[in-house]
Amino acid sequence: MAPAPAISAPAVVVKNKGLLTAAIMVAVVMQVLDTTIANVALPHMRASLGASQDEINWVLTSYIVASAIATPLTGWFSDRIGRRTLLLGAVVGFTVASLLCGIAANLTQMVLYRVIQGVCGAMLVPLAQATMMDINPREKLGQSMAIFGAGIMFGPIIGPTLGGWLTETFNWRAVFLVNLPVGIIAFVMLFALMPNTVIKIRKFDFFGFGMLAVAVASLQMLLDRGQGLDWFESPEIWLYLLLSISGLWVFVIHCFTSSNPFIDMAMFKDRNFVTGLVLIFVTGITLFSGLALLPPMLQNLMGFPVIETGFLMGPRGIGTMLSMVIVGRLVGKYDPRILIIAGTLLMGYSLYMMTQFTVVMSTTPIVVSGLLQGFGMGFVFVPLNSLAFATISSKYRVEATSMFSLVRNVGQGVGISLVTTVLAQMQVINYGELAERLTLDSGPLRDFIAAGGGLQNVAGALSGMMTQQAAMLAFLDDFQLMMIVTFLSLPIVFLLRSPKNKAPPTAEERAHAMGE
Prior knowledge:
Blueprint: H1 17-34, H2 42-49, H3 53-56, H4 58-70, H5 73-81, H6 83-102, H7 107-134, H8 141-169, H9 174-177, H10 179-193, H11 206-225, H12 235-257, H13 271-301, H14 306-330, H15 336-354, H16 364-388, H17 397-437, H18 443-452, H19 455-488, H20 490-493, H21 507-514
């Protein structure tokens, strides 16, 4: 009988890895839930806080922009004060900010507290992911990323449903106050279990961070406000574009020429990591755009209430959870690239199924396509996370996971902006095409007019039917676009390299992680 393969030592050895993993995931789920849980409560907040439609959107925009700016800061702060201190501080800050959001008396207070939430929440995910990779041996990286991925996927899927239930059962303040017990539990567990890490004193690159902050914040503002301002018809959007491009250009040049750059560009020499960034960007586009499209389609076109809409989106979560349990065991046995390709094909096929949706149909296609899409997501997310960080030095882990989270979030913003723009434009185009084809020579139309008592009597109903069909066709156009983007990402997978020959952490890397 052949001996079992040797398991390499993790970068950080802890006594209660299972409990620490549970504590980390409690914090992660709390944060990712908050990215979507507040969306359905916006109309109730607007009435309570006395805000206009444009003003209330700042509840979401402030969180997104603050999170985007703070994410790259995670690496520097982790080195400066230690990962344990930063993680505990982020949990406390996020929990306190949630309490303040729950008792906010006006829009100004709400926006301020959401900024604090965004800053603290931005640091939780990369710190959690880096810690998960440090406390597990390289051979168990796939299983640890399956657990981590389950938490990341759980929030966006369950958030709208939970937010709707809390708002209808209690009020909008409950979507923030629900974080209090979760945050307290996470803090107590992390305080007892989180290990210390090395503190590395390095000068803060104010200029580099400033340029990156300008680039990221401008891009997020462009994506968030573009649709409402008719994109590049607005000087404001052109200003955001100019600031984003200029800030990014200056930041990159500065990082290559500075002796103390804000981000060490050496980590971008790792091909797997860079390829992983490209793929997670595409995944962010396709994954979160679908989650943004389905609720309005199900509620506005098909007439499902909020709670039932949540249940219909539930199979995505079930599929994701099932696939992550399976793929966590397969990553170590099969080439992860094969798993990513299989997951991408499943996601693409599920989007093809969604292009066949109709206004009048049973819920079966919605459930089946959602289950397949969720299953495919797990097969993409877990091996992609494993491969992206398989060959990169452990000393870059916090900075690398921060960049990974930032790129995924930017992809999410791009995807949502893209599908909402296409949806609005295609509704107008589809309505015009339907109107052109609607002639009085059509037999069914003549029968409909006759049954309704004349054209004047049925004109309103006819216009409503065309509007509904034009909207449904626009959703199908979006699903088709996402399907094409998904399939086009397949060749990028072949740029990833197998990590089989990756050496275990060096003594220097292990000492860096453990703080020796």
